[in-house]
Every structure is written in C-alpha cells, then in structure tokens.
Amino acid sequence: MNVEINAELYFFDSKLDYLPFYRSFDLEIDGSKNIKDLLKSVQEMEPTFEYPKIKTIVQINSKLLDARIKLSEIVEVFGNRIKIEPASIYRSTNCLRFNDDDFMQKYENLSAFCSEDDLKFYRTLYATYYASETLKYNRDYFGDSLFVLAHRLIKNGSEHKKEILEIISDEKNGIGLYEYENNQYPSVDISEIIDELKQLIEENLLVNTEQMAPVKFIMDKCKNVLPGKKEKQEDPALKILSSHFNAEHEPEDALDLISKIGVETVADAVKHPFKDFNIAFYCGSRADKSTYECAGSVIKAVGGGIVDFDLSDRACGFGIKDNAPEIAYKKAGNILVDAFDNSADILVVDSDEAFEMFDQLGSKCQNAVGREIPMPIVTLAELVVLSAGIADKKELGIDDRHRVSVSFI
C-alpha cells in the first residue's frame, strides 16, 4: 500500500553554503519501502541532494534512526509530515552526509585494551554514539558507545579494569555527563549499564585511595562521577487535588490520580477553564506515548489548547547538573525555548526534577541560552486544582515554591 509523505529535507554543502536550508518534497511511495528508498527517490528528483549510501542513519523529527526502517512504520510513528536531517548536523558535509571520524577517534581511548571482536562490537554502536544529545554541547564527550564497550570489556574479565574505569570517569568528558536522552527510535536505554559502571567506579575509588587520604576527598571524587539522589519535594497541589477528588490512596503523582478518577471527572470539576491559554506538556525522556496522551486529555479537559514541541520528551539536564551544570542548563534552556517559540503560554510538568530545572533553576537555564522566557511553569496538579477554582497562592505554595512568576493567578 502506498503512503503519502511530505518530507522536509536538510540541504547544505560545506564547500558552497554558509547556512543550511530545507526543501519540501511531496511523495507517494510504497509503504513497504524504507527511508533509504525515499532518499534515493529524492536524489532522482534533485541530483544535488546527497546522503550516505552505507551506514545510513538519519534524524527524523529529531529522532535518530536506521534508514532501513519501513516507511509504513515511519508514518505510523511520526505521521505524514517529517523533517529529515543528518545524524550529526554539526559535522554535515553535504546534505545528509557527515564526517564520522569522531566515532573511531573516541574508540582510541580504549583501543589498547580491545581485540578484533571488541572493535567489531564497537562498530555496531554507531547509531548509539550519534544519538547522544550531550555531543551537541560537548564535542569531546566520549560518547555512550564507549561506555557500552567499557562495560563489555570489564564483564569479559579484562585485566585492565582499573585503567578502563579511570579513563571513562574523566571529569570533563566521561560517564558523569551521561543522561538518558530518548533520542533514538526504537528507543535504546543503556542506563543499567551506566549504573553498573558508576558503581564499579565508586568501588575502584574506595579501594585504590590511600588509607590516610581524607574521607572528604573520596566522597567529593565520587560525587563528581555519581550524582546524588535528592529527597522528593512535596507539591502541595497534589494533596489538595487528592482531597478534592476524595482519593482513597495517596497518589504517586497527578497522572496516577487522574488515571484512577478519570479525565471526565476532572472536566466536570472545572470552574475556571484555561480557554485562552496554549499549554505545553513536558513529559521527559522516560515517559511513554500513553503518558503524553493522558496529559493532553487533561489539558483539553481544563479548556486549554495543546502545544506540541519536539523537545517535550528529552532529558532536562537534571541528572548531570552537578557534574556538568553548563550543559544541563543549556539542555533545559533549549527545551524552554522550544516550548515558548511554539507559542506555549504555560509549560506543565509532572516531575520534581523537571520543576526544579525549569522553574527553580529557570533563571540559570534562561541565561545559558541567552533568552528571557516569560512562561509560567506549573505542575499538572496545580493546573487541575486551579481549573477547579482553588486559587489560594499560600495554600498552593506558589510564592514559596515558584521562582518564575505565575502571573495568571
């Protein structure tokens, strides 16, 4: 069966162009064909268009994926309007072609400890390497693929375990900068591998530190590699929401409560609809499609208009703010800019981490991207409670918790 696709493609020739530009192509093509077939069709229409013929990976709507995926699946996941960009925009040489020398350059950090089989394994991690968002902010970052390789070497009993751990724990470019990004389709999550490596690094530091070294030195060193856990902040609006709807059990979050009472109940309780507001929801890198859909239903239920933005499911930088604050604030700042530039009046969050980054550390995020973003950040619980007519700032803890002005109350 044929599918209709409007593809916006990235054009840039590093020898001729100062800036990239995009061209739109309307295509009707067999859904059983893949992205590579689509790119070939575009090249037949526009001979100046280039793409890598081998190791073909691209970004579609900011998600990195293998060009062998069928177009029927692409349409199902991304819709009929797609934007296709090179896997590495910064390293683009000619349209979707890019210089990938950095992939093997990063391998050199561990090459002395590797066999031919290890090298072959590393080469399978090509897409994993370019899917890392951190590379956009620190081009010397070792890359997620190197950490997966390090894990393999250690698990296979490498006698160089200590040296490997010391290399990947590099303070500026190492594992402390890793954060699950949700940048790849299908999603690839190496967080368990990262956690295991961090634990090994901590054990290695403790074992190999001289007995007389101050304990503070050890703990500070570990902290640089292992972000500490923070106590959960309490959102007063969640308790009010729970009480207002007579919840039988204390909910984990607003979405948990709403899933139990139903969106219809929320809609019936609305007294002050958000009918004049465009509302964006930040779901974060670990949310699934159902989370986003549920939040969208809630926004509709309270009368708001839904704003979609590309970075709604990306990591907000919370996990690396202690190790790499500049990168963390830029990540969060770019998410705020993306929501705001897509006409969002309000950004709704449903996690303490996102609230801390976007609101309580919002000024640092705005400074990091050089933009003033007068967009209130509210939790999903606050949004529902406010729509139900409960607008006591003191009771909601608005002045105590919020650093970005919630001007509409």
Task: Describe, in short, the structure shown.
With 409 residues, the chain is α/β, with parallel strands linked by helices. The chain contains 20 helices and eleven strands.
Question: How does the SSE layout of this entry go?
Answer:
Elements: E1 2-11, E2 21-30, H1 35-45, E3 57-60, E4 63-66, H2 71-78, E5 81-86, E6 92-94, E7 97-98, H3 101-107, H4 116-123, H5 126-130, H6 134-137, H7 144-155, H8 161-168, H9 191-208, H10 215-225, H11 236-244, H12 254-261, H13 263-268, E8 278-282, H14 289-301, E9 305-307, H15 325-341, E10 346-349, H16 352-360, H17 362-369, E11 377-379, H18 380-387, H19 393-396, H20 398-401
Parallel strand pairs: 1-5, 8-9, 8-10, 10-11
Antiparallel strand pairs: 1-2, 3-4, 3-5, 6-7
Tell me the total number of β-strands. 11
The share of residues in helices is 40-55%
Q: Classify the oligomer.
A: single chain
| Structural class estimated from helices and strands | alpha/beta
Our measurement of the CA-to-CA distance between the termini, rounded to an integer number of angstroms, reads 52 Å
**Regions with pLDDT < 50 over 5+ consecutive residues?**
211-219, 225-230
CATH T-level fold name of the largest domain: Rossmann fold
CATH architecture verdict of the largest domain: 3-Layer(aba) Sandwich
The major pleated sheet works out as:
5 strands, mixed
> What is the average of the pLDDT values?
92
Q: What would you call the shape?
A: globular
Number of helical stretches of at least 4 residues: 20
